[in-house]
């Protein structure tokens, strides 16, 4: 009966995605290339939904064996099981390497560009960085071009402002925040991964966090590193059944990025796992109070978004001003991810026809490739991940890649923690790991070159 229900749920999910895709395709003027790109995206997403329906809750299969139970006493020593020092050192070394490589790639082929600090500013103050630095220095304003900064969430600029009390330089403060958040975030990613996979695999998850093609954004004065730290902390405390702390970090994540509040999907899924486990073990009456209190903690997570909406209201008199500016200034809104893929494919074709290789290879090809590769990666790793990770990824992908004018898919997906764990699972064999690491590193170098030299990389 249970398997039959899961089968029908999978069929229903795939059918729903297919119907929506066909309906939207018939009601818009999409090119053949756009239909192919959107169709591939919809098919992969539907397949991942089917995989989730086939194994919706770990508790239905008796749960997972802790990797610690497979280790001996020596391997369980704290220094070996929790190598925080090595992880932090590795993160800081890779961030310094990214700074140096970015500097060299910027200077390549140029006359001497000026002092090192001016050059670093030229290298890293791209994309959304000036907006975050402006908020940290002047907060949100209502006049001039900086009024559009209200679309950026406030927690990262607040952290920059705090460190500015020490450094009195917004760029340096932002880089310090990103470096520190990267280091702490890597520790949380490792600790969360180590609850469900062996130590080497958990370390690989940290590695892929740092070598994904758009991972250099963790070095930039951007919110990705802080977002990863907060999301990973929420996941870790969820897996440790400390739901109050999980939801507090979830709220802070929602105060950092627009997709931050989606961590509630992961937390709620794990709470549902607890209910199912208690029901199957016949202990639901004894655990009822604790289960209800845990569920009530979920109400904390939306507070991050509510706080941001209040800032919109306090500054502009309208809690939804950010949506208005997104639509009017960036042609941005909520849409369907496969329609976004079709739009990107059509834009890529137009760029190719114009001979605009910078736009083609700096913007559209990386965006389409990142979205499709992320779905494939999750699809291959779904069986080895807890269902909550798959559910969280589906929600994250649908929202992040459903933006109607999506320019930053590689950056958004780099900050999606389930992808790091999926990559770790997919690279279990040494040859596969070497090949994936080499490919990601080369793509990151190419993407970094385009970023620092002013290509269409956002």
Structural class: mainly alpha
Query: What profile does the largest beta sheet have?
Result: none
Number of helices: 21
CA-to-CA gap between the ends? 48 Å
Overall number of domains: 2
Oligomer: single chain
Indicate the mean pLDDT. 90
3D shape: globular
Task: Explain the overall architecture.
- It is a single chain.
- With about 450 residues, the protein is mainly alpha-helical.
- It folds into two domains: about 1-65 and about 335-415, no CATH class; about 65-330 and about 425-458, no CATH class.
- The chain contains 21 helices and no strands.
- It has helices at about 1-25, 30-55, 80, 85-105, 115-125, 130-140, 155-165, 170-195, 200-210, 225-240, 245-255, 265-280, 285-295, 305-315, 320-330, 335-355, 355-380, 385-400, 410-415, 415-425, 430-450.
- Helix 17 crosses helix 20.
- The model has no long low-confidence stretch (mean pLDDT about 90).
What is the secondary structure topology, with strand pairs?
Layout: H1 2-26, H2 32-54, H3 78-81, H4 84-107, H5 116-124, H6 129-138, H7 155-167, H8 170-194, H9 199-211, H10 224-239, H11 243-254, H12 263-281, H13 284-296, H14 303-316, H15 321-330, H16 337-354, H17 357-381, H18 387-400, H19 409-414, H20 417-426, H21 430-452
Helix pairs in contact: 1-2, 2-16, 2-17, 2-18, 4-5, 4-8, 4-21, 6-7, 7-8, 8-9, 8-10, 9-20, 10-11, 10-12, 12-13, 12-18, 16-17, 17-20
């Amino acid at each position: 009966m249970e398997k039959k229900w899961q089968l029908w749920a999978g069929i229903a999910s795939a059918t729903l995605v297919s119907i929506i895709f066909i309906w939207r395709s018939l009601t818009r003027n999409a090119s053949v290339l756009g239909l192919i790109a959107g169709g591939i995206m919809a098919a992969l997403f539907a397949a991942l939904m089917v995989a989730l329906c086939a194994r919706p809750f770990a508790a239905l299969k008796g749960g997972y064996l802790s990797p610690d139970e497979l280790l001996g006493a020596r391997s369980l020593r704290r220094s070996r099981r929790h190598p925080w020092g090595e992880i932090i050192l590795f993160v800081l070394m890779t961030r310094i390497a990214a700074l140096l490589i970015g500097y060299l790639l910027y200077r390549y082929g140029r006359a001497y560009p000026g002092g090192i600090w001016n050059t670093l500013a030229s290298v890293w103050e791209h994309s959304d960085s000036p907006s975050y630095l402006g908020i940290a220095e002047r907060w949100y304003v209502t006049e001039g071009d900086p009024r559009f900064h209200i679309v950026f969430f406030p927690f990262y600029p607040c952290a920059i402002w705090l460190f500015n009390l020490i450094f009195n330089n917004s760029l340096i403060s932002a880089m310090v925040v990103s470096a520190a958040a990267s280091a702490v975030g890597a520790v949380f990613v490792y600790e969360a991964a180590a609850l469900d996979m062996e130590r080497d695999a958990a370390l690989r998850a940290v590695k892929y966090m740092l070598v994904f093609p758009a991972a250099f954004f963790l070095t930039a004065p951007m919110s990705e590193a802080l977002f990863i730290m907060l999301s990973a902390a929420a996941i870790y405390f969820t897996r440790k059944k400390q739901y109050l702390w999980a939801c507090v970090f979830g709220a802070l994540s929602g105060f950092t990025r627009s997709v931050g509040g989606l961590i509630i999907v992961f937390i709620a899924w794990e709470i549902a796992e607890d209910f199912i486990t208690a029901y199957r073990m016949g202990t639901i009456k004894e655990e009822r109070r604790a289960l209800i209190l845990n569920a009530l903690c979920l109400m904390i997570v939306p507070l991050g978004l509510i706080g941001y909406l209040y800032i919109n209201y306090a500054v502009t008199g309208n809690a939804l001003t950010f949506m208005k500016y997104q639509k009017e200034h960036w042609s941005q809104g909520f849409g369907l991810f496969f329609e976004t893929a079709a739009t990107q494919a059509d834009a890529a074709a137009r760029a190719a026809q114009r001979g605009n290789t910078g736009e083609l290879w700096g913007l559209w090809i990386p965006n389409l490739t990142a979205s499709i590769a992320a779905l494939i990666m999750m699809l291959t790793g779904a069986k080895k991940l807890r269902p909550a990770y798959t559910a969280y990824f589906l929600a994250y992908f649908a929202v992040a890649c459903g933006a109607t004018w999506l320019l930053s898919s590689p950056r958004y997906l780099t900050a999606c923690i389930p992808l790091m764990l999926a990559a770790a699972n997919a690279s279990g064999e040494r040859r596969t790991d070497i090949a994936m690491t080499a490919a990601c590193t080369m793509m990151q170098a190419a993407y970094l070159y385009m970023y620092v030299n002013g290509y269409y990389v956002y």
